[in-house]
Structures are given as C-alpha cells and as structure tokens.
Amino acid sequence: MKIRRADERGYADHGWLRSYHTFSFANYHDPKHMGFRALRVINEDRVAGGHGFGAHPHRDMEIISYVLEGEMEHKDNMGNGEVMRPGDVQRMSAGTGVVHSEFNHSKENGLHFLQIWIEPKALGIKPSYEQKAFPAAGRQNQWRLVASQQGREGSVSLNQDVNLYAGSFDAGDSVKTPATRYAWLHVVKGAVEVNGEQLSTGDAAAFEPGDAISVTGQDTSEVLLFDLA
Q1: Which segments constitute the Pirin N-terminal domain (predicted)?
Q2: DSSP string covering 101-168, please?
Q3: Is the pLDDT confidence value at 176 over 90?
Q4: Measuring CA to CA, which residue among 111, 112, 109 is closest to residue 202?
C-alpha cells in the first residue's frame, strides 16, 4: 500500500475557486504523480457562490463529477442541462469533442465537488452524457458500484474497464472490500483505518493486484474505491 497524503497534493487558489490536485494538473506538475493506471485526475474543488467554469472544450476523456456539498449546474452543447446534488454521479464521455460549463447553482452557498478524469479505452467515440442519483442509504456501511464499463447494477457507464465504488462508514464499521485488480482508494471525508493505517479527508492509497484492502470507519466517513485494469 502506497499512501498519498492530502497535504502532499497540488493546490491552486483563484479566489472564487480553491482546488486540490491529487495528480498533476494545470500549473501543478509532479512527474511522480501523473495518474494511476487509467485514472488521470482527481480534483477536489470548492467554488464560491455565483461562480463557476464557463463554457470550455474537452475531448477523448471520461469525466466524472461527484458532488459533496451544494448544487452544481451543468450545461453542454449536446443539449443537456442538469443540477447535481450530493449523491449524484455524472459521467460525460467527451469523445470527439464536447463543450460544457459547470457553475455553482447557488448565489450564496459554496459548492464542493470532485472532478475525476479517466483515460478512455477507445478514442474518437460519439460524445455522451449520463447522470444518476445514488441515495445515501444504498452506500451506508457498504460498497455501492456507481460507475462501470457496462453500467452494471444501475451504475453510470464508462468507456473504460474501471469499476468505481462509493461507501459511507460510521465509526467501527468494517465491510468486505470487492476483489480488485490495481486499486486506488480516496477518502472523500472523515477518517478510516486502511490496513492498519489511518487515512483522513483527502488522503489516498494505491494497491497492487491481489493486495488485501481492509477498511474500518474511524468516524463518519465517505470513501471512493477505484478498481482498475
């Protein structure tokens, strides 16, 4: 298990936007942290009320948004317009090219979300969009599949061989972790014990195929687990 501590991440403060970068992104570059397998970006963003990212392009990337607090308004040139709330998972396959915007839906309250980029299995596909809600009860004290290549078990579908699980744990909760290949575990909030090590908000850990992964809640916590080819 290789641990990536929250305070080791890149950081950018633009006033209206404060962002932590788990992997190299924009002006933050660290050749030791360019991604993990197909996982390329995990940005933890906090956006002030009334602000956001204006229309901008993407191509050939699987982009997942995961809202932690507040509401995020999405619009794109495919005609989609949605508001995301905590528990929602949005997937946008940029493919041959898409233009979208993301704004804090509130003028007063802050927006806190994760943006995740996954390199696609195939380039040049037709762009597409999907958004689904995953109620807290379905993630409590268990791993809930929220994204997968075939959209299994009601998850959003990905153009890559990746399984993304979300779990919420209370102190003392311990559940069996799904069998993984390469794995990346990211603590969204709270604190958990992973293989005897304490990981807190923003901390992450990488695992090789076959590594045992034991997760026990230390307080109210939320965790993402990526299973990667």
Answers
A1: 9-118
A2: EEEES-SSS-EEEEEEEE--SSSSPPPEEEEEE--GGGTBTSEEEEEETT-GGGPEE-SSSEEEEEEE
A3: no
A4: 112
